[in-house]
Amino acid sequence: MSQPTDRSGQGAEPYPVVDVHTHVVPRGWPELSTACGGSGWPWLRIDSERDAMIMVGDTEFRSIGAECWDADTRLADMTADGVDVQVVSPTPVFFSYERPADQAAKVARIFNDLTLEVTGRGGDRLVPFCQVPLQDPEAACVELDRCLANGHVGVEIGNHVGERDLDDEGVVTFLRHCAEVGAPVFVHPWDMPGGPRLDRWMARWLTGMPAETHLSVLALILGGVFDRVPETLRLCFAHGGGSFPFWLGRADNAWHRRGDLVRGRSTRPPSHYADRFYVDSVVFDPAALRLLVDTMGVDRVLLGSDYPYPLGERPVGRVVHEADFLTDDQRAKLLSGNALRFLTGNDRHRAGRRS
């Protein structure tokens, strides 16, 4: 077994380091208007053997490289960063929640099957999460069950479906099903509002994404979802839970002082529910990570990177390794133990070490 080195200069950790937040864009998908119906689908412009551009119509959406589809490139980067296991989730632009459910179900099936081809080349180091047509709860449950039977371990969902947030009854039906079948759920913000004030400086990603996540966590709490779904439901929010952890005190204050408007269907103040979900560590600064750990609890923060996209963290785990306020046991939870519990419901996982 090789001994990759992290930024702290120490050798490989004595436990499997697990990155719960990475994305994939497989190659080889068919022309989606033919395969799924409709028009205006994303397509992949191949620029070279190792470079491509995700296109939406005639608009360039995102430049991507071979690390998005090539397992060997991905595994090499993991080894360089000292990561044993990646959770590999869809890229949200392909969710297709705005389309008819039958079209979204077809595209989900295509990308879910292609994702298994990518992760299958990584053995148990690459853990696939699927996507589902969340606008149709029944179809979403059917696709999740198919994917779990085929080798997916969990599911990534967007944080809303049009104007329907995570307290929508259809979404709650799907979340209950996830709890019943033991599927972990990774929630990723997407489809942020635009406009003149948000379409410069990547402001939709820098301000819109944190706000979207914050809003959806509040929807689960104030919409009474956590009071209605089993405690066995395992949820993780991307990007450190957005702005929610920083403003949890404000939410509690509003719940107590303006309960006539704020409490909704919740039975307890927002801070009561902080142990009902996980967040990843993609906050980039040890001071921000300390706030996250202090607010959410050390058992609720998981290593994440947003690999392979440019707003992600490289080397993966840098902020966790640089956080000198963490004890060795706490660091082990963030790098490994919490993710294993999120993935499996316990502290055991079959994921393999890098070699």
TrEMBL record:
Keywords: Decarboxylase, Lyase, Metal-binding, Zinc. GO terms for molecular function: aminocarboxymuconate-semialdehyde decarboxylase activity; hydrolase activity; metal ion binding. The keyword Coiled coil does not apply. It comes from Micromonospora polyrhachis. This is 2-amino-3-carboxymuconate-6-semialdehyde decarboxylase. It holds the Pfam family Amidohydro_2. It is an enzyme of class 4 (lyase). InterPro entries: ACMSD, Amidohydro-rel, Metal_Hydrolase. It comes from the Bacteria. Pathway: Secondary metabolite metabolism; quinolate metabolism. Residues 18-343 form the Amidohydrolase-related domain. Belongs to the metallo-dependent hydrolases superfamily. ACMSD family. Coiled coil: none annotated. One of its GO terms (cellular component) is cytosol.
